[in-house]
């Protein structure tokens, strides 16, 4: 059986450093440090839980959850990201889909999925581009957004899939990518809530993902923004890895980028 050997959460956006050079450098260095820590566990596969930015999931098709089951992926190329092929893990993707089906989830399986910045920035700047990736997408853009409780149930299913359905010795890292607080194209556009961001990270440091789940999406969006609900991906990574605690790696209130930017390592059991 396989095992989750490393886990973390990170924001998935980088913008121009002009006017915020020092804080931008700390963000880049922080993402690299998180990657260094994850790679120390020697993962064979990276499961990255993130959101789509209306490139693959749009108004014409609105699945709640998607899992990639391809052997490789082509990046979307947004933000001038190179479109070099990224290896995938069909075996682990299919394991997640099969276990999820048994657990009452009808996951959309993607043979073709263009990796946008929500996946590419983390794997590039963590230095993990050569590790086969399995995208797990949470649709936060169309209503109804999956509830925090439903996301946690899927996270538990992902753990079961890795432990029961992947080959012996398969070593998996799980990363939740998105957030932290940000409001986009709504009232309060461009705001950052340091209070919310530190609350989220502090609860995950204490291994208290359940407190965040109990808030529910409405409170998360009210306090962290319509796009801040991407913290569901961090919660899922913490729950999937059964994290007993965590450690903040970096945080910057990047008002120039309209986003609270952070990263943390989860201590897996």
From TrEMBL:
Annotated CDD domains: CarBb
Keywords: Dioxygenase, Oxidoreductase, Plasmid
MF terms in GO: ferrous iron binding; oxidoreductase activity, acting on single donors with incorporation of molecular oxygen, incorporation of two atoms of oxygen
Domain Extradiol ring-cleavage dioxygenase class III enzyme subunit B per the UniProt entry, residue ranges: 13-260
The keyword Oxidoreductase is assigned to this record: yes
UniProt cross-references to Pfam families, sorted A to Z: LigB
Domain of life per record: Bacteria
Protein name: 2'-aminobiphenyl-2,3-diol 1,2-dioxygenase CarBb
Gene that specifies this protein: carBb
